[in-house]
Amino acid sequence: MSEKTAVTEPAPPATRRGRGRWLFVGLWSAVLLAVPVLFLVVQHSRRPAPAPTGTSPVTRSAGALRATGIPDQVPTDVASLMGLSPVPAKDAPDFTLADQYGHTLSLAALKGHTVVLTFMDPHCVDICPIVSQEFLTAYRDLGAAASNAVFVAVNVNSDHATVADVATFSTAHGLSTIPTWHFVTGSPSALQKVWDAYNVTVAEKSTGADIVHTDIVYFIDSEGRERFVADPQVDYTSDGTAYLPTDELQSWGRGIALVAGALT
């Protein structure tokens, strides 16, 4: 992943004059109407995550927002980068699916371990590979505690839902080097139930096109309860390639490891 480079924005075109006051008013009105539409269609914007219902109030520290209840060992700037928020401790919805080895895996069977749960598209070339890098960094940063943390991704692409699909992605992005990594998949109806249970929205632009889905990371404690959520983000180069600067990738990985370690 390359470092972020500065991109020079083109100078705005000079305003044409002499076409009359009403033309100017009409053009300005069209711009005002277009701005909200453009805002709605932007995917993966650099934004703080909204606090889930029932979370604690936030406090301001060093210019950043920090939700009350975040583990002390997670620096405020890292928590802010991750959009990290505590959630009411409740049982995480159970599911049973097949992982990249074809082995049946249920969330309930992972009790006794901290679970870092996310949702990925095995056909994705956008944010999913970046989250994969963050998981790899987190696994390394956990050190001796890594065996107590399980990393799980649920497939969001029902057109690429075979065991071979999730296995190929896992190998291509190095996730298979994490002993406790599971990329689980199943039938479209089984996957839909999991998406609904975790409030994950999945939409396909057109047949065979990229999947647009909710990007979220759940932190589940050893008793199987949801404890925290984080909001993965991505930037784009001028040619549309998704990336994050190296320091942010490392901070994300460190943050995941710190939260998982606090729950272990």
Protein architecture, described:
The chain is α+β, with helices and mostly antiparallel strands and 264 residues long. It has a single domain (58-263), classed as 3-Layer(aba) Sandwich (Glutaredoxin), CATH 3.40.30. It has six helices and 14 strands. The chain has helices at 21-41, 76-82, 127-142, 163-172, 188-197, 246-263; strands at residues 58-61, 64-67, 85-91, 96-98, 104-106, 114-120, 149-155, 181-184, 202-204, 211-213, 217-220, 225-230, 235-236, 242-243. Strands 3-12-11-6-7-8 form a six-stranded mixed sheet, with helices on both faces. A two-stranded antiparallel sheet has the order 1-2. The protein is globular.
CATH class: Alpha Beta
Question: What's the CATH topology name?
Answer: Glutaredoxin
Order of helices and strands: HEEHEEEEHEHEHEEEEEEH
Across the major sheet, the strand order is 3-12-11-6-7-8
Q: Which regions are unreliable across 5 or more consecutive residues at pLDDT < 50?
A: 1-62
**In which range does the helix fraction lie?**
25-40%
